[in-house]
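To whoever is covering the structure queue this week,

Two jobs came back overnight. Logging them here so there's a record in the thread.

Job A:
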Amino acid sequence: MRRHELTDEQWECLKDLLPPPSKRGRPRGDLREVLNAIFWLLRTGAPWRDLPERYGPWQTVYDWFNRWRRDGTWDRMLQALHIRLDRQGRIDWELWCVDGTTVRASRAAAGAGKKGAPKNPQTTLWAAQEADSARNCTWLLTAEACPLPSERRRARGTNQRSSKR
């Protein structure tokens, strides 16, 4: 048995949770190998097309993965394993784990824009309104609370230069 592959005991727990074979069409291949292939992909993080040839065509493995996702097979497996582990007292329902991964965002993600790029908040505000963003949209609230300098002068009704004369 290779790394990332199911043991005989693990396979015995999971094989009854897989959908029964169809009476029509070609006989299906070994689903244990399909599960081993999926677990290899999940463990290594490799793309589907980089699946080792010993597991068969990547398209077949991908099709099984998607079929089981759509028909709820993965959910049934997880639920059955939860029940089994809970009966054995191996699940601590009081323990909560939260992923602490942090990804640094660019300045543009915060609305700052790129250095030297032309700034035109009116275009962005117009785009947000045309996209039918809700009134509580963060961008719309920011744009209304911080109008452009030219809008502030128009709102006062006077030009600063003309008031000095």
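Job B:
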Amino acid sequence: MSLKLLLVDDELDALEGTRFFFEAQGIEVLTAQGGHEALALLKACRPGVIMLDIKMKGMSGLEILRKAKAFDPSVAVVMVTGVSEEGLEEECLALGAVCVLHKPVRIEELEQVVHTLHASQSFESPGR
């Protein structure tokens, strides 16, 4: 089963660098720079993993997380943040994120998280 990864970040450089890294590994990568685009891709393409920046212009990562989990409760969402706010990580996890990574995130850390989530999804639901 191949993995579809949706990257959501309003910082184009971060988005493109991460996209390039995962595409080089043969992973299908979708990208969005905002909430409406991300939700449209979620509905049209059904990615297994979403990597989502928390603080973005327009729709926040938390709002996207809520809507993504309402649409597809099984989608694995990894939140990424460059800010430290009290209670933010707990709120993300309570809304259904599998983890919260803090910027700057090492690409090896992203790789490990994505591959672990993909392996657990493959084991739990072979038809996704």
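Note for Job B: DSSP finds five helices and five strands in the chain.

Please reply-all if you pick these up so we don't duplicate work.
Q.
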